[in-house]
Design brief:
- The chain is elongated and about 80 Å long.
- Strands 5-4-6-7-8-14 form a six-stranded parallel sheet, covered by helices on one side. Strands 10-9-11-12 form a four-stranded parallel sheet, sandwiched between helices.
- Helix content is about 45%, strand content about 20%.
- It contains 13 helices and 15 strands.
């Protein structure tokens, strides 16, 4: 028998066929010159392993391209080594970025990821989540807005002692996960428009069930107040974090007798919808109307003109939330609510008013 990277090759005498088999934990232990128990400790990221030995084991695993068998790890530790990501969000770009971050953190600790789209407004929402937990038994859950703020679900998870991490919860106290100062970031975006010379600044609101919708509206109001500008009720139109709602809200704003010279949409999808509605109405961007958004999803740089927006590090947020959750699951370190930083992305969709 000859050991190959990640595989053992065996040849049957009868037919001469070659069968490929995965490298085992025993193969790793032999290559590293240690016991299978030590390899297991390294796999489970346990602290009681010398750093030099940990490096030897990791080197052997890399050379053999060893991948631990999830079923064997589950039997040995009574854990599934799987994290569930729950979402109810209309923005595919946002969810894709969150997924990428969660997957990155899971892969680093040899976990798998289960993704489950749900409708949080459904009458049987909590029962559906409980059924998922019963059938798949993930070690913990990553919750995204608006699920992060579903009171009945949070009560159920705490009652059953299910570990979870929240991304941008409206009420972060007592939670672990990750958040961003979205209120401050929204105020900064209004400040940018004021600095350009705009005084008639409208806002397309996000879903009021999302913490993001509440914070970004509050930041818009903060920005107006700081600039000494009065709120105009007709300049605040409800949207739902979707392209379609952005188009509808922008049409309403552009139909006003004294229309705004700038529109700040609470997310990029609605901002792109606003660019679409402006083109439909024959309004040039940014010549006659400046438009900006929030999140800095992929579409922000792909649309024309490229969108001025707030960069929210969504991928990093997914990764950091997962790292906090895995810390809670393993009992290593003190899991916390982590705050990440935003950045302004000033592009060609904003300019001085005409």
């Amino acid at each position: 028998m000859e050991i190959l990277p990640n595989l053992r090759r065996e040849k049957t005498a009868e037919h001469g066929r070659v069968f490929l088999m995965r490298a085992t934990i025993d193969d790793v232990a032999r290559a590293a010159g240690t016991s299978t128990k030590t390899v297991s400790r390294v796999l489970n990221n346990e602290p009681n392993v010398r750093e030099s030995m940990r490096e030897r084991v990791l080197t052997a695993m890399a050379a053999l391209k060893y991948r631990p068998l999830a079923s064997a790890r589950s039997l040995a530790t009574n854990r599934s080594f799987m994290i569930g990501l729950l979402y109810d969000n209309l923005s595919p770009s946002y969810i894709m970025e969150v997924q990428a971050g969660v997957l990155e953190a899971c892969a680093a600790q040899h976990y798998s990821m289960m993704v489950q789209p749900l409708v949080s407004a459904a009458a049987d929402f909590v029962e559906r989540v409980e059924d998922i937990l019963s059938r798949h038994r993930p070690d913990g859950l990553i919750l995204t807005p608006p699920i992060t703020d579903h009171a009945q679900l949070l009560d159920s998870l705490r009652r059953h002692d299910i570990p979870f991490a929240s991304i941008a919860p409206r009420h972060p106290k007592g939670c672990i996960g990750v958040m961003l100062d979205e209120r401050e970031a929204a105020a900064k975006m209004v400040e940018h428009l004021v600095t350009l010379g705009h005084r008639r600044i409208a806002h397309i609101l996000g879903d009021p069930k999302h913490g993001a919708g509440v914070w970004r509206l509050a930041g818009y109001r903060d920005g107006l107040k700081q600039a000494g500008l009065k709120e105009i009720p007709g300049y605040m139109v409800q949207g739902w974090f979707s392209f379609e709602s952005g188009v509808a809200a922008a049409r309403q704003l552009l139909a006003l007798k004294r229309r705004p010279t700038a529109i700040f949409a609470a997310d990029d999808d609605m901002a792109v919808g606003t660019i679409w509605a402006a083109a439909e109405a024959g309004v040039s961007v940014p010549g006659e109307l400046s438009i900006c958004g929030f999140d800095d999803t992929m579409i922000a740089a792909q649309v024309w003109p490229p969108l001025t927006t707030v960069h929210q590090p969504v991928r990093e947020m997914g990764r950091r939330a997962t790292e906090e959750l895995l810390g809670r699951v393993s009992g290593k370190g003190k899991a916390a609510m982590v705050e990440v930083h935003y950045e302004m992305r000033i592009r060609a969709s904003t300019a001085p008013p005409p």
